[in-house]
């Protein structure tokens, strides 16, 4: 299963998008550090932990202002209303003319942010018709900004990152997943049992963007996610693809990603363990 790829684009635009996305991620990291756990006022959406805070709104407005100045013809979609309704989850190939768009998750992991738990992120991505072109993810509490662009690799605070292919077993490894907005995803308990049987540990940490980024960094072997908003994962998927991770898309994706795992499922894994983790998922959800 190949990583995220697509058609080439104007290298000048790509360079400018990568630079500005990285700068916005750095700005956001400073704000998140300053505000986390300090009297944030959350407004619930679909579930008690599906929150949007004042900090989230402030960072999204700042992102909108900066991108509107530099890329006035490219729409941005986030938690707040965009110029048109936010698109449905579909990061696979699209038909029709190529169009660019930005997606931002100003604070991914709002529940952690509100509680002061140091595991949340800022995520920004530019996408074209075939998927993520540019991605930037800030990991504020570890002082890291990860950025990457199609064909240009991934960097962590400016240092190139390439996912090694040494691990061929999940024994002793960590696999990340997340709860859905309504709780456990179908088969989650059995998936966890199969992972434990293979001597792997499953972790639910509360931030989809960082779960995927840890795979790209080689610190986590895989991430299996159900029903995540596209804006939460697009930036990290740009990084994972450039680092060399295996990515299997939701059911709407085409065969270039090796086929779908099932409705709303996303698997990101180190190449040597992707088949094993995918098999856990398949067995768990039969």
From TrEMBL:
<dbReference type="GO" id="GO:0046872">
    <property type="term" value="F:metal ion binding"/>
</dbReference>
<protein>
    <submittedName>
        <fullName>Inositol monophosphatase/fructose-1,6-bisphosphatase family protein</fullName>
        <ecNumber>3.1.3.25</ecNumber>
    </submittedName>
</protein>
<feature type="binding site">
    <location>
        <position position="108"/>
    </location>
    <ligand>
        <name>Mg(2+)</name>
    </ligand>
</feature>
<dbReference type="Pfam" id="PF00459">
    <property type="entry name" value="Inositol_P"/>
</dbReference>
<dbReference type="GO" id="GO:0006020">
    <property type="term" value="P:inositol metabolic process"/>
</dbReference>
<keyword id="KW-0460">Magnesium</keyword>
<dbReference type="GO" id="GO:0008934">
    <property type="term" value="F:inositol monophosphate 1-phosphatase activity"/>
</dbReference>
<keyword id="KW-0479">Metal-binding</keyword>
<keyword id="KW-0378">Hydrolase</keyword>
<dbReference type="InterPro" id="IPR000760">
    <property type="entry name" value="Inositol_monophosphatase-like"/>
</dbReference>
<dbReference type="GO" id="GO:0007165">
    <property type="term" value="P:signal transduction"/>
</dbReference>
<feature type="binding site">
    <location>
        <position position="232"/>
    </location>
    <ligand>
        <name>Mg(2+)</name>
    </ligand>
</feature>
């Amino acid at each position: 299963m190949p990583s995220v790829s697509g058609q080439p684009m104007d290298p000048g635009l790509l360079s400018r998008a990568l630079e500005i996305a990285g700068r916005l991620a750095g700005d956001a990291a400073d704000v998140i550090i300053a505000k986390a756990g300090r009297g944030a006022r959350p407004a619930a959406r679909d579930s008690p932990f599906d929150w949007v805070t004042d900090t989230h709104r402030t960072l999204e407005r700042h992102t909108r202002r900066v991108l509107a100045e530099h890329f006035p013809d490219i729409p941005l979609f986030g938690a707040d209303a965009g110029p048109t309704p936010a698109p449905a989850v579909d990061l696979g190939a699209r038909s029709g003319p190529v169009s660019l768009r930005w997606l931002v998750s100003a604070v991914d992991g709002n529940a952690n942010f509100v509680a002061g738990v140091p595991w949340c992120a800022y995520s920004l991505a530019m996408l074209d018709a075939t998927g993520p072109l540019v991605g930037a993810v800030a990991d504020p509490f570890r002082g890291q900004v990860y950025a990457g662009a199609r064909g240009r690799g991934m960097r962590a605070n400016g240092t190139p990152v390439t996912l090694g292919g040494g691990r061929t077993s999940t024994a002793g490894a960590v696999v990340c997943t997340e709860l859905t907005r309504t709780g456990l995803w179908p088969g989650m308990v059995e998936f966890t049992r199969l992972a434990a049987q293979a001597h792997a540990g499953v972790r639910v940490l509360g931030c989809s963007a960082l779960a995927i980024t840890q795979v790209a960094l080689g610190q986590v072997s895989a991430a299996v996610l159900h029903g995540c908003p596209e804006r939460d994962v697009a930036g990290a998927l740009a990084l994972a693809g450039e680092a060399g991770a295996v990515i299997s898309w939701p059911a709407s994706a085409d065969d270039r990603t090796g086929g779908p795992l099932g409705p709303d499922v996303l698997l990101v894994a180190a190449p040597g363990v992707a088949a094993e983790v995918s098999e856990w998922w398949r067995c768990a959800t039969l």
